[in-house]
Amino acid sequence: MTQIERLTSQPIALRINGRVEHLTVDGAVPLLTVLRNDLGLNGPKYGCGLGECGACTVLVDGVAARACAMPLAGVAGREVTTLEGLGGEGALHPVSIDPLHPVSIAKLHPVSIAKLHPVQRAFIQTQAAQCGYCLNGMVMATVALLRRQPRPSDAQARAALAHNLCRCGTHIEILAAVQVAAGLMAEAMPPAGSADSAGSAG
Ligand code: FES
Ligand code: FES
Fold first, then answer.
1. From the CA of 12, how far away is ligand 2's center (Å)?
2. H or E element: which one contains 79?
3. Is 58 in the pocket of ligand 1 (CB under 6 A)?
4. Pocket residue to mutate for ligand 2, from 168, 171, 173, 175, most atoms within 8 A of Cβ
5. 47: CB partners within 8 A, 6+ apart
6. Whose CA is nearest to atom 3 of ligand 2?
7. Is this prediction's pTM over 0.85?
8. Mean pLDDT of 2-19
9. 18 within 8 A of 10, measured Cβ to Cβ
10. Region 7-27: what's the mean pLDDT?
11. What percent of the chain has pLDDT over 70?
């Protein structure tokens, strides 16, 4: 499809990582194509392009979704979060490091690591990657899982990630990362009954 064919006269408004984007792109174009080619958000990966592997996973309104199988028009007006939107400003995330010029995790600045989402920190801590190609999907699916099940059992974690494929076989470390992430997120929660938790209940 040429660039001209992808253009439309009616911009589509999307909310991506907290920013509103107005895109003059055909609404039938897959969200993944727009994220990577138009917005430069390369955290989501192109794996199968068929909704089968999970490498392209993003969050749509907080729920894990396959960006390769989702037309742009299907997310108009909804909140899309990519890997880039998880950490705080200035955070580095290891899966977006250029694989041709890898940087040792040990050399990353501690402040950058501290700004990562707890799930990302857990994946670093457990070294849950080899090539890292699946990692975007594993991280995003884990974030979605912990939103609905803050303390998942191992069986629940396996079920939640069963359709995210890892060709390198780091499944054991990935499952360990889920449990570490659950612990980090529980630590970050204000204690029950505190002013913060009381305020958020309403
Ligand atoms: S690239 Fe989207 S599921 Fe495989
Ligand atoms: S670490 Fe290579 S595909 Fe999962």
1. 34
2. strand 79-81
3. no
4. 168
5. 53, 54, 55, 56, 68, 133, 134, 137, 165
6. 166
7. no
8. 73
9. no
10. 87
11. 77
Residue 45 CA, ligand 1 centroid: distance in Å: 8
Tokens representing 92 are 């580095």
Q: What element of type H or E holds 65?
A: strand 63-66
* Rounded distance between C-alpha atoms, residue 35 and residue 199, angstroms: 35
Check if 129 has its Cβ closer than 6 Å to any atom of ligand 2. Answer: yes
Q: 79 — phi, psi (to 5°)?
A: -95, 115
Tell me the pairing of strands 79-81 and 12-16: parallel
pLDDT computed for residue 107 by the predictor = 54
Most informative mutation of 95, 166, 172 for ligand 2 (most atoms within 8 A of CB): 166
Question: Are 164 and 134 a contacting pair, CB within 8 Å?
Answer: yes
Interval 118-162: pLDDT, tens: 999 999 999 998 999 999 999 999 999 999 999 999 999 999 999
Give the H/E segment covering residue 117: none
d(CA 162, CA 157): 8
Residue 139: CB within 6 Å of ligand 2? no
Ligand 2 atom 4, closest CA: 166
52 lines ligand 1 (CB under 6 A): yes
